[in-house]
Amino acid sequence: MKRLIFLFLIMFNITLFSQYKVYVNPNIEIKKEELDKNNIQIEEIISLGIKRIIEQTKEQMLLDDTFEGAKQEEVEFFLSFAMEEAIKISIESIKYETKNRARVNLAVQTVDREILSNDKFSKKLGFETEDAEIDLTDKKIQEKFKKAYIEGIKESKKNTEYGEIIFEKINEEWEIQMLE
Question: pTM of the predicted model, to two decimals?
Answer without folding.
Answer: 0.72
